[in-house]
Amino acid sequence: MRKLTLTLAALLLTMPVIAAQTYTYDWADGAADYIGCFDTDMETVIEAGANRPGSEGYGLVLIKNNLPTEGYALGFLAAVWGLEAGDQVTASIWRMDDFGAMPYFRFWAHYNNSLVDAGSPLLQDMVAYDGNCMGNNDFGYQSGWEHFTWTWTIEEGNTGLVIDGVVYGSVGDVILVDDFEITVPDHASVRLPNAVYPAGGAPVQTDASTWADVKALFR
Q1: Nearest CA to 177 among 69, 70, 100, 74?
Q2: Which pLDDT does position 159 carry in this prediction?
Q3: Which residues neighbour 81 within 8 Å (Cβ) at sequence distance 6 or greater?
Q4: Can you list the pairs that 194-201 forms with residues at least 24 positions away whose Cβ atoms lie under 8 Å?
Q5: Is 196 left (phi over 0), alpha (psi -120 to 50) or beta?
Q6: Are 144 and 49 contacting, i.e. CB atoms less than 8 angstroms apart?
Q7: Residues 77-87: pLDDT tens digits?
Q8: pLDDT tens digits for 126-137?
């Protein structure tokens, strides 16, 4: 038994450790809102006073903009690429829902294997869809601000992941979100509303006009 224990310990010591990197965005600068949606499914507004108490003075308003009247719309909050099978991506967000019924919010993700280091966000294919990863299916307590988190394990054959804020309800229904955080393997690249973070490279900040052009591609 002692020999088996020592052997297992030796194996654990030789297993590679995957380093991770964490990125955050809280919309406090009021400059960048989201990174797209399918067709015209969702609109967004960066609004003073829509922030979580204790956070800075802006938050993101997700507005369901699509038909059918009852259904859901996805807004892209972050994108990750350069992923490998078995990698884990963990993300979290705060959402505000005071209604106790529709609208509902879910924290999901989908695969997009067309994401690459394109040099410019305008050159990325944000609307490619390679399967739903689901995520946190719980609508929560719907009694004010609540924290949602989920970890996705990347399946074989997939290299890109998009994190979605999902709003269920009627056209014009809104959900507030704030204080987004994502942790990825350090060999992966990340795109947040305000910047692109290449693996092993320096962040590339994006100005408001760039994101306005990006959003126009999805409307």
Answers
A1: 74
A2: 97
A3: 112, 115, 116, 117, 159, 160, 161, 188, 189
A4: 194/25, 194/29, 194/31, 194/32, 196/121, 197/21, 197/23, 198/117, 199/82
A5: beta
A6: no
A7: 999 999 999 99
A8: 999 999 999 999
pLDDT at 218: 44
Cα-to-chain-centroid distance, residue 177: 12
d(CA 161, CA 134): 11
Instruction: Spell out the residues 6+ positions from residue 23 whose beta carbon is closer than 8 angstroms to its own.
Output: 78, 181, 182, 183, 184, 190, 192, 197
pTM to 2 decimals?
0.85
Q: Where are the domains of the chain?
A: 18-213
Would you call 4 helix, strand, or coil by DSSP? helix
Domain range 18-213, CATH class? mainly beta
Mean pLDDT to the nearest integer, 174-185: 96
Beta bridge partners of 75: 37, 165
Measured in degrees and rounded to the nearest 5, phi and psi for residue 5 equal -60, -45
Q: Quick one: which of 129, 137, 31 has its CA closest to 76?
A: 129
Residue pair 28/134 in contact (Cβ under 8 Å)? The answer is: no
Q: How far apart are CA 210 and CA 96, in angstroms?
A: 28
Residue 20 has pLDDT above 70, yes or no: yes
